[in-house]
Amino acid sequence: MTILIDNKSYTVKAGKNLLEACLTLGLDLPYFCWHPAMGSVGACRQCAVKVFKDENDTKGRLVMSCMETVTEGLRLSIEDKTAKAFREQVIEWLMTNHPHDCPVCDEGGACHLQDMTVMTGHDYRRYNFKKRTYTNQYLGPLINHEMNRCIQCYRCVRYYRDYAGGDDLNVFAAHNHVYFGREKDGVLQSPFSGNLSEVCPTGVFTDKTLKEHYTRKWDLTMAPSVCNHCSVGCNTIAAERYGELRCMLNRYNGDVNGYFLCDRGRFGYEFVNSENRIKQALIRNRTNEAATEDEIMEHLQPLISVNKLVGIGSPRASLESNFALMQLVGKENFYQGISEDEAHLNRLVVEMLFSGCVHSASLKDIEQADAVLVMGEDIWNTAPMLALAVRQAVVKTAASQASQEIKIPVWLDSAIKELTQEEKGFLATLTVTTSPVDDIATHSWHAAPDDLARLGFAIASYLQPGKINNTNFSEELLNRAKTIGDALKKAKNPVVITGISCYNDNVIKAAFDVAVALSTSDRKTGFCCVMTECNSMGLAMMEAPSFSVANENIKTNGHATAVILENDIYKHVTSNLADEFFNSCDHVIALDALHNATTEKAQVLLPAATFADGDGTLVNNEGRAQRFFQVIPNTTSQVQESWRWLRKLQSLKLHTLNGHALHPDDLLREMEIALPQFKDIASVSLKHDFTIHGEKIPRAPHRYSGRTAILANKNVSEPKPFNDEDSPLSFTMEGYKGTPPSGVVPFFWSPGWNSVQSVNKYQDETNGALRGGNPGLLLFKEKIDNKDLFFNDVPESFVAAKDRWLLLPKLDALGSGELSSYSAALKTLSPQPFAIMSPGSLLALEAKEGDMLQIMDAGIVYGSLPVKADENLCDGVVLVTAGLRESIGMSWGARVQIGK
Amino acid sequence: MFSHIRTIWLTFLHLFKRHVTIQYPEEKIKLRPRWRGRIVLTKDPDGGERCVGCYLCAVACPVDCIALQATEDENGRRYPEFFRINFSRCIFCGYCEDACPTYAIQLIPDFEMAEYNRQNLVFEKEDLLINSQGKYPGYNFYKVAGMNAGVKEKGEGENEDAPVDIHSLMP
Amino acid sequence: MQHVWIVLGVLFVLLNIAAGLIWVERRMLAMWQDRLGPNRAGPLGILIVLADTLKLFFKEDWIPPFADKWVFIVAPAVVVGSVLMSFVIIPFTPQIIVSDLNVGILFFLAMSSLGVYSIVLGGWASNNKYSLLGAMRGASQMIAYEVFMGLSLMGVVMLTGSFKLGDIVNAQKDMWFVVKQPLGLILFFIAGIAETHRLPFDIPEAESELVAGYHSEYSGMKFGMFFIGEYLGITLISAVTVAMFFGGWLGWSFLPPWAWFFLKTFVFILFFILLRASLPRPRYDQLMETGWKILLPLALANLMITGAVALLVRG
């Protein structure tokens, strides 16, 4: 479509509103209440433009550009005098009550209100009356509240309530006293509350953890990163100042996390600065345990070259690190550092996705799905962003249906809301117990994993009769299957979500069967399986045996040195198994970033880099390989990426001098050859020597301050800036000033757009892909005609045993996460460990809610936990909190004994 | 040609003019209050640190010689945890003073800062902070800023209404 | 024996004058610019001479590794040598003259032409583009101004009928040649400034364009030699001007002849400094143009007219 803006003709996409069209064209037009993810409500009156009837119309009329659809030949003017004056006046009104506190406001320097004020040209206060004030509320340890700064754009409640489904933030009072907050002081309940700091165009809601060590955006050294607190792999921006990680910001990726992050991802960064960090290499059992790198190498030389090595990989270490370990110890001695059960499930998922029978669904696919089936996984707690995507799918399905019916554009938010009311798209949640996602579900059912699997197989059988041999399903189950199956059949883009937290392969197989049965030529079906850690998929794809196999081998063969890569074995397997392993090892070399039970066992401990002080690649549950980049320059400490340590050990072993520099892309290139399943993995990111016109991409904004004073207290002569040889990014503010390639965007900034809203300058179109394509390399390709893989093993129905309980993990959206649990703010929100049982089970145990229960398995006693009752949980199952800081490895999926 | 000769002649006549040189260490020039010399951090009328750690001086500094870290006390009042100026880089342009929204950073007419050791030109907050309001007496930022940082309650600042009663529906 | 004393005496006095000019020039420049100049070391700052000399002695005597070592060392010696040789023919008094050669003026012209070798060799040996540019400019400037320098003096020679400086001074007993040869004086003095490459004709150095021209790479006493050479050059041109146009040692009898000579010379030295204080440097092409297109024809015209008048008067 062609429209004329200020008498210049532009081509724009149909169906958009004028504001989106203008922003997509790169024109500057101020706005507040509009948000690309939330649509338009036309409340702030800021985006006014003039629209003319035809070429003879000189008068025109003012319209809110966000409320007007693009039409062929439309004439509008942004520069029109009246429109400009109007916009300036609107800002002037908004500013009448805005307090005089930008210097102490955390938004300052990245503030949409500041940007828009400058953009409209308002610069002089004419209003001489008193300013309105508000009292603030305590909103928990994550978000700070300063209500005086509010400009009443309603974005916060629209995000919190409508988009994220929270219900404890609302708007109160009336007319010019409108107040955004909670009913009374208290912690915001939604695990997506952190996004308020980016959604709020001014400083009402700000990141409270950043406040602890506040730094302005222009002073942050930033690098593109990937969240490592769950398997979804949201894109983030890690920000550093004075050698400390300061905050995490959302990094838009149209295929993954869009505009938002969950609180675990946003606030889980603090573990990098925690006191528990390993910063010093240690050789244990000697007087002075601290060791220099040379001492370490000297000490390890005999251990490495003489002894047999056993490598224990990690689902939270990068591909490079795992591969470097595999190279060091040899492929036959490399093991996944996870339990056999989990490894088995992971293998199954890899097999399914490799078969190409199903399309591996991205978050974007899930958001756009018109029917969602969740099987067995508590996605709200194991992968919060997935739950947010499912919510969008459900809401948007209703919205797009409504908009098709009466021709209202989808972005016309309030009209659509009015029309749809409580109407929702189809979502079926079949889980072990209740989850907040159930609130928006059309159909939810809670049962033991085997029963969930049976329902899954029944649905598959209903969708494609004859494929499942066993049809011994109960009437009730068949009815359920029919309801769900019918709804799924109607959908054009259904998605099936499952996960491994049931520790039951039948659940995953059933979900897969449903997805395969749904995949027809006219229906694009997505399949998504949640895994435990950020690189579980990458590790599983390396096809190594599990830790249990490693233990067996070392027990039979004996005499080995174990090299343990970023893995707390005690969190993955039961303590007796781990103890057994460590007792049979001659030596233990551990690499990790945080002290834990495993690093205690190590005779040699090497400080490994976290995502913030190293480079690496992670594969998320979709099979998307994504590169994260170092953001903390490492000049003095011994901390380095595990792969670098391991490569140094390897050169020690092979007696080669490692003279040449090693880059992550070199490792990935070796990996392509050694492991053909990682085809093209080296192209996941740009080569380390990539430059644009000979310039690297600067990590720091051009107004980065204090360069000649930061280190002046140590030495007045400034040192050379830290040189990054591993990536196309540099650690200074000098370098290429244009828009960098999409995978290496260190921060979003554009002239006049200092806030995160500048992301629109980096996109092809609003809500679209980043310019140059969304980053990430997909490792699984759907093979359209291949529908060979199908599972037929329908399990027997679950029967509660009298003295044995099925042990399953209960994760927590904020508290769970091996690394994020070391973040101070999240720790305060994390629950204490507890167990959940059904009232029936409690009755059988003669226990009541709050009693301390002992969980025992094959003679191991896991310690006492308080028990909670849950009516929705079926009898015979016990859920125990997992992933918390205090949590230990348990035999998930096993039948355990419970004593009082 | 004539102009050359005239130039030579006029220059020659300067032989009989008074010299303008001031014999510096013995004679001293009178410095105006706005002379831009050494940088100090001032205090507000109540004796509190004026600096709120907003980083505007640091970003305005063309030679990037100011580094600081903001922190907060228990009342939420911002102050710099450290404040460092590398005077060996400072060009005394006064941009930091212009940028300062709280009149905290001020340039005073003291320029005699020569040191034998360059390291001694790195000034920390203890070296910069003076017990005076400097050129702008009577100003306390927190009295006019909207927030409550232990200096005044919400609504008690200059030009502020009492906090809104959000339960009221009165017009 | 007396000759030896004269030689030593002249050498001693000249070198002291050259050194003293360090102080004189700075003080005078300062005065003309309403400043004070060096006034800290010794009474009126006179010990700056000592301080500056000591400084030059103790500076690192650096020979760049890329330079042509021997030529680099020889070059500064040439300038001092050639200028000092010129002083051989200067009659300070009727008695104090090293050697009153009968080709006196020609000897002076020959020696001062040799001075250019120092610039060319120094610039060449430095192996530095700025030095070389300076040297080239120096050479062409010398050639341009050398020519009419000689011609401008020929008027005086014509009137005297001798190249001997003693005879020339004696010929001015009644009237200084400045009256008969004003144009000759002006031309000679301009050529003299160019010859010593003093401001405003310091094109070979031109610090705003060429760092320091031909002596960019020089430091320590080698630089000091160029420095001394320049001051000796000033003194030489002033002395020759006095001898040729202002009656040399002649003067009223309340002062001895040598005092008259030095007084007159000193006035011209001050004039050199005044020029430095007041005039800007011309562009290189303007300098060459003035030399070849204006001053040379003027010198020839002066010669012709003087010749014609001399013929008429005798005739």
UniProtKB/TrEMBL annotation, chain A:
One Pfam assignment: Molybdopterin
Record's keyword annotation contains Iron: yes
Reactions listed under catalytic activity: a quinone + NADH + 5 H(+)(in) = a quinol + NAD(+) + 4 H(+)(out)
UniProt-listed InterPro entries: 2Fe-2S_ferredoxin-type, Mopterin_OxRdtase, Mopterin_OxRdtase_4Fe-4S_dom, NADH_UbQ_OxRdtase_75kDa_su_CS, NADH_UbQ_OxRdtase_ferredoxin, NADH_UbQ_OxRdtase_Gsu, NADH_UbQ_OxRdtase_Gsu_4Fe4S-bd, Prok_molybdopt-oxidoreductase
Domain 4Fe-4S Mo/W bis-MGD-type stretches: 220-276
GO CC aspect terms: membrane
Signal sequence coordinates: none
Keyword check for Oxidoreductase: yes
SMART domains recorded: Molybdop_Fe4S4, NADH-G_4Fe-4S_3
Cofactor: binding details: Binds 1 [2Fe-2S] cluster per subunit.
EC identifiers of the protein: 7.1.1.-
Keywords, sorted A to Z: 2Fe-2S, 4Fe-4S, Iron, Iron-sulfur, Metal-binding, NAD, Oxidoreductase, Quinone, Translocase
Origin superkingdom: Bacteria
GO molecular function: 2 iron, 2 sulfur cluster binding; 4 iron, 4 sulfur cluster binding; metal ion binding; NADH dehydrogenase (ubiquinone) activity; NADH dehydrogenase activity; quinone binding
Biological processes annotated in GO: ATP synthesis coupled electron transport
Cofactor(s) required for function per UniProt: [2Fe-2S] cluster; [4Fe-4S] cluster
PANTHER family: NADH-QUINONE OXIDOREDUCTASE SUBUNIT G, RESPIRATORY NITRATE REDUCTASE
Subunit structure: Composed of 13 different subunits. Subunits NuoCD, E, F, and G constitute the peripheral sector of the complex.
Family of the protein in this entry: Belongs to the complex I 75 kDa subunit family.
Entry function: NDH-1 shuttles electrons from NADH, via FMN and iron-sulfur (Fe-S) centers, to quinones in the respiratory chain. Couples the redox reaction to proton translocation (for every two electrons transferred, four hydrogen ions are translocated across the cytoplasmic membrane), and thus conserves the redox energy in a proton gradient.
Name the record gives this protein: NADH-quinone oxidoreductase
Classification of source organism: Bacteria, Pseudomonadati, Bacteroidota, Chitinophagia, Chitinophagales
From TrEMBL, chain B:
Boundaries of every 4Fe-4S ferredoxin-type domain copy: 39-71, 81-110
Highest rank taxon of the organism: Bacteria
Record keyword RNA-binding present: no
Annotated membrane topology: Peripheral membrane protein
Main location (coarse class): membrane
Keywords associated with the record: 4Fe-4S, Cell membrane, Iron, Iron-sulfur, Membrane, Metal-binding, NAD, Oxidoreductase, Quinone, Repeat, Translocase, Ubiquinone
Gene Ontology biological process terms from the UniProt entry: aerobic respiration
UniProt-listed Enzyme Commission number(s): 7.1.1.-
Keyword Metal-binding: yes
Cofactor notes: Binds 2 [4Fe-4S] clusters per subunit.
Localization terms from the record: Cell inner membrane; Cell membrane
GO MF term list: 4 iron, 4 sulfur cluster binding; iron ion binding; NADH dehydrogenase (quinone) (non-electrogenic) activity; quinone binding
Binding site for [4Fe-4S] cluster 1: C51, C54, C57, C100
Quaternary assembly: NDH-1 is composed of 14 different subunits. Subunits NuoA, H, J, K, L, M, N constitute the membrane sector of the complex.
PANTHER family: NADH DEHYDROGENASE [UBIQUINONE] IRON-SULFUR PROTEIN 8, MITOCHONDRIAL (PTHR10849:SF20), NADH DEHYDROGENASE UBIQUINONE IRON-SULFUR PROTEIN 8, MITOCHONDRIAL (PTHR10849)
Annotated family: Belongs to the complex I 23 kDa subunit family.
Main function: NDH-1 shuttles electrons from NADH, via FMN and iron-sulfur (Fe-S) centers, to quinones in the respiratory chain. The immediate electron acceptor for the enzyme in this species is believed to be ubiquinone. Couples the redox reaction to proton translocation (for every two electrons transferred, four hydrogen ions are translocated across the cytoplasmic membrane), and thus conserves the redox energy in a proton gradient.
Protein's name according to its UniProt entry: NADH-quinone oxidoreductase subunit I
Species whose genome carries this gene: Pinibacter aurantiacus
Taxonomic lineage from the root: Bacteria, Pseudomonadati, Bacteroidota, Chitinophagia, Chitinophagales
